Amino acid sequence: MAFYERYVKGDYTSYEDFMERFSINVPEKFNFAYDVVDEIAAMDPDRLAMIWVNEAGEEHRFTFQDMKEQSNRCANYFASLGIGKGDRVMLILKRHYEFWFSILALHRLGAVVIPATNLLMEKDVAYRIEAADITAVVCTRDGQVADEVKKAVEHKGFDTTLVMARGEEEGWHRFDDMYDFSPEFARVETDNSEPMLLYFTSGTTGMPKMVQHDFTYPLGHIVTAAFWQDVIPGGVHLTVSDTGWGKAIWGKLYSQWMSDTVVFTYDYDKFTPTDLLEKMQNYHITSFCAPPTIYRFMIQEDIKAYDLSALKHCAIAGEALNPEVYNKFYELTGIKLREAFGQTETTVVLGTFKWVEPVPGSMGKPSPGYRVCIADDDGNDVHMGSVGEICVRIDDGKPVGMFCGYYGDPERTHQQLNTGLFRTGDLAWMDEDGYFWYVGRVDDVIKSSGYRIGPFEVESALMEHPAVLETAITAVPDPIRGQVVKATVVLNRGWEPSDALVKELQNHVKKVTAPYKYPRVVEFVKELPKTISGKIRRVEIRENDSKKS
Known about the structure:
By secondary structure, the chain is an alpha/beta fold.
């Protein structure tokens, strides 16, 4: 019996059965560190929890007993620094194993964890410390982010406790001092409704929101590993994600351990597809999850040169998946990519679950517990096949795992959680078989000559051309049409920009989709602007275009 079956039933026979019978038995008081990590350590202390490797070839294998003891030491150390229940602590630890020690330790203390990317600059750090009332920062010495943290604290005069991992400097406490503390720690009682985790959204537009989750959040992710990623008990799972992004929590901790699979962590700075394929081969990865960008680069390599025979299931998230990438990966590996849709505020909202046949380009079907609809501006369901906003009806309660509010923003929280309808800000349509099809962000839809054009469908059309590695579709102002479609394109190896290629790409789109959707403007670039989570920042492209005009 899988560990998660303490909380849910696992014997489903079909998607319909899954939707009808799935429910989560939430304990009166749940804390992942005590009730999962410590329980597994008690039952099977030598069970492998994580394999960690880095670019230099260093390797560590941590059992659940290791995770229990090291996080206990870390909790004792943090407590000695004055960190306690309710304190907000920012973790900037890249893919270092110290992240796992720290997040479990903070769960034990009842503190609020704020994961953050190592790409933050001084102003970003200062904004986060002030906005979220952060009392401590645990930061890697690797790279320049520690310098940015120190400047932010000194220039703003913050009274912030600073802890440095993988280095030591004046003004910082040494993370490694935690190893001198006891591996025993008395349980701190936490209530399910108390805040446990806070994420600054990736901020593709405007300043990031502060999304807060309570202690039941890990239970909401049981669906993630067990029924979408379809991890293998006793297998090895790899999710490509920096720990500063919410996807790390989706794929490198909660649900994987509850589903009895080992987490594989590759600590690297620069993504190289051949390095990743080599690790997948050498460590016999059985399940894999990554954003579309990773797959786009992987299919350009000679995948068949690597022994991926252990690999059984692959999932994709972060952005919508272009059918061309799906088809090429399937051709090379025989594995059908399983897409899902969710947000920082949620767990898996839509997914291609284990009983759902993947359809290239579709996000799949609703997750159990989520009453998903496609709604118009007034909150009414649109007709089948019509485009509207992906929404979740929560008038009779929100699903386990959905966020508990935006920190410091009661008005936005009320609007999203107390009006009966959670709006995602993403547009889609549903077909007659119940599959959902992505169109684009509400703010990204292009209005040209009376037509509404979703960027994703044009991007998918362009991706079918062999010259195109990646592309982003945005709008540029036009005096006659209001807006016209612009394609910003990254070319595959062996292709060079030219006027002839522009014409060829335009004609290709006209043949693949409705001719009025073709990009009237095409710009070739070396790379697309992206968030740390790998999402394309179309807003940055638009801002750069406005500066040129």
